[in-house]
Every structure is written in C-alpha cells, then in structure tokens.
Amino acid sequence: MNRLLIQNGRLLDPSRNVDVTGDLLIVDGRVAEIGGGLSPDGADVMDATGLIVAPGFVDIHTHLRDPGQEYKETIQTGTAAAARGGFTTVCAMPNTDPPMDTRATVEYVLRTAAGADARVLPIGCVTKGRAGEELAELSDLAGAGCIAFSDDGAPVPDAGMLRRALEYAGITGLPVIDHCEDSAAAAGGVMHEGWVSTRLGLRGQPAAAEETAVARDISVALQTGAPLHIAHVSTRAAIEQVRAAKERGAPVTAEVTPHHLTLTHEAVAFGAGGNGGSDTLHYDTNAKVNPPLRTPDDVQACVDALRDGAIDAIATDHAPHADYEKDCEFDAAALGISGLETAFGLCMSLVHGGQIDLATLIERLTSGPVRALGLERSVPGLGSLADGAPGDVVLLDPDAAWTVEPERFASKGRNTPIAGRTLTGRVVATVLGGRVVWAEERVKA
C-alpha cells in the first residue's frame, strides 16, 4: 500500500468550499483523508508548511504536437512541462499529423501517454482531417476515449456543419469546442487590428472576426440544445455574447488564456512590459498568437468575466514551436505561446493586483475546467480533494518570486513573450495519482 502524507499546508479546494490548514493523506493514488495531526505508518511525508495545497490543475486546451510534430513537442516533454506548471491533467488538441480523427490515432496518444507526468485526455476532430468538409466518426472517437471534439487551429467553417456536429456530438454527450474565427473577416491579419498594427505596418485582424463567429455558434447551440465550448475568448463583445447566452440558458461554456488575461497587443511592439517610454519597436513574434493579443479594455473584460463566472475556466492554449518557426519575419512566424510552465505565475499577477481572489483563481484552474467539459464523466472526482478523488495535488508558494527562463523549460517550446520577466507565485510540487512528478528540494518526500 502506497501512502503519501502532505503535512501542514493550507488546503484549498474551491469545489467543496474547503480552506483549512491541515494534512492530506493519499493512499494508493486516491485521496484518503483530510485532517489534523495525521501520521500513518509507512507514509512518505512532504512538508507543506507555508504552502497552498490544491487539486492538480486541469488544462482543457493543450497542443502536445504528438504524433507527427515531435520536433516541437512530444507527449513526454509536454507532460513534463505540465507537471512543472502544476497541471496534472491536460486535454490534447487534435491538430497533430495525422490529426486525431481516427480511433487508431487516439489509441496511439493514450498508449504513449501511459505513465507520463500528467494525465492526457484526447480531444477528437470535428471533421475528417480538420478540413471542414465531412464529419469525423464522432461516436467511434468517443468510444476510443475522446472527451470532446474540436478542429482547433481552424474554425468549424459554417453554421450547417456546426449544427450537424452538435447534433451528432450530442448523442455522445460530449461538447464541441470551437475556435471562433470568421476566416473572411480575419483576412490574413497577423495581429489585432488597432493602433499598434497600424504603427508596425502589419495586417490587422479585427475583433469582429471573433465576435461574429461567437454569435453564430451561440445561435446554433441554442437551436440544438447541445453543449458548446468557446475556446480562448478574447474580446469584450464576444464575452458579453457568452454572458447573455448563459442568461438565456444556452449550453455554452468558455475559456480564457493566461496571456489574454495579462498581455495586450502592445507586447508585439514593445515587449510584455510595455514601452517604458521607449520608441524601440520589437516586432516580437513570440507575442504572435491566435486569437491575437487585444486591447487593455478587452483584457479587463476577460478578467471581469473570469471573476464573475461568465468565463468558466483558464486554459493555456500551450502551443510550442521550434526556435526557427519564431525567429523569422513576423508575417511568416508561427502562431502560439508556450504557456504551461508560466500559467500560474502569470495569473497570480491578477491576485496580487487585487483583481481576483486566490480561491477563484484556483477554481478556474481546477473544478471550473472539469465542469466546463464535463470531465467528471471520464475521471470521477477530478479537480477536487474529496475522499476517493484522484490523488492529484499541487503545492504552491503564492509569494515566491522567480524569473522566466525559457532555456530551463521542460517543454521543447521556448516561445514566450515574457522571457526575463519576474513573476510572483510558483509551483513547488506536483503530485499525480499519489506519485510526485515534480518537486523542489525543499518539499521532496
């Protein structure tokens, strides 16, 4: 019998409104007891004095690149990065090569992820080859272990296809996750359309490209009654549409990324810290992401919606790339940010800035994502420290300052616009099913 005792921590489990100082015992991979003064015989012990002990984080939007793009990331390196970031469960997006549109590809991912440093839950394609022309075999993908369907990286192309996808996905009980972008409205834009794109001479992507797609998707979801999840929402108008849809009872959920909560389009020109009075233009390709970084008003709308629940979850949209895919002209650079290892520290800036409280942040990283995609069906107790729940735990030091050093990432992707930035809030240890998969020396059992 394997026992792990985590002692003297601040146990914070928003799913059950638990916030107490005490001990947590994990036996044979599952939460066995929470209390004070626990001292079972034969247990390995971790001292969590002064630390927060929370359920392991759940990322519902991760690009692991495996199979087919292992030069960017592998399941092993991606889950190692997840563990460093406090994530014990990651939902793998299907834009691999080949895409996850067949049972065989899904089974490959699950087989390769066995014994990895994080639990991997696969997301199957909506359409075959993510080409937007013919529905994938959704029921077969669900039977293979998929927990949702998405063509992320590309939107479901039209309302008719989305309606059929929602109807068939509804039979399985699984949600469709859509990358909301009107491709015609986006018109090749490489960053947010605004004063920064004008100053840099770059093609802008208007906010309307996201907002019109969100409106279409919500309308179809209301018509079908099937669950729809809006990926990486980023504009004020799109958020207001999500909020209004929820008030109407639409089966709609939404996520936001750490970078859309904390960075603006100015990062492209001046870096993540702003211009600081300098007129030097960076053209920072590490800040090139889709949807693009938006205006300060959009960022504030994202924070407000995360706080009040209009947005259900924080999801990293971890998108690792090889160095040469970013070290090039801005128009040619790949889209995406490597975000698993910086997510908690970046989001803690909202807590330290008084914009959101710590319990809400932890909820949006744990039970919020589970609820948004209905992951309880696949992993009962996920996102909780309830008795019998998976022994997935993260130990956090909310006041520890550290510097982002991409060269030290576990991920192959070093593409982050916040390199060199000091963050306050650090993951100290990560436990998956009672197994310590990442820990600093000070807490090692």
Walk me through the structure:
- The chain is α/β, with parallel strands linked by helices and 445 residues long.
- The chain is built from 14 helices and 18 strands.
- The strands form four sheets. Strands 1, 2, 3, 4, 5, 16, 17 and 18 form an eight-stranded mixed sheet that branches. The protein has a five-stranded parallel sheet with strand order 9-10-13-14-15. It has a three-stranded parallel sheet with strand order 6-7-8, sandwiched between helices.
- Strand 6, helix 1 and strand 7 form a beta-alpha-beta unit.
- The protein is globular and about 65 Å long.
Number of helices: 14
Radius of gyration: 21 Å
Number of strands: 18
Look at the structure and give the mean pLDDT. Answer: 96
Question: Beta-sheet strand percentage?
Answer: 15-25%
Helix/strand structural class: alpha/beta
N-C termini distance: 16 Å
* Low-pLDDT runs: none
Question: Which of globular, elongated, flat, extended, rod-shaped describes the shape?
Answer: globular
- Main beta-sheet strand count, sense and barrel state: 8 strands, mixed
Helix content: 25-40%
List strands and helices in order, with pairings.
Elements: E1 3-13, E2 18-27, E3 30-35, E4 44-47, E5 52-55, E6 57-62, H1 75-84, E7 87-92, H2 103-113, E8 119-122, H3 138-144, E9 149-150, H4 159-172, E10 176-178, H5 183-186, E11 191-192, H6 195-200, E12 204-205, H7 208-224, E13 228-230, H8 236-247, E14 252-256, H9 258-262, H10 266-270, H11 296-308, E15 313-314, H12 343-352, H13 358-365, H14 367-373, E16 393-403, E17 422-432, E18 435-439
Parallel strand pairs: 1-4, 1-5, 6-7, 7-8, 9-10, 10-13, 11-12, 13-14, 14-15
Antiparallel strand pairs: 1-2, 2-3, 5-16, 16-17, 17-18
Helix pairs in contact: 2-3, 4-7, 7-8, 8-11
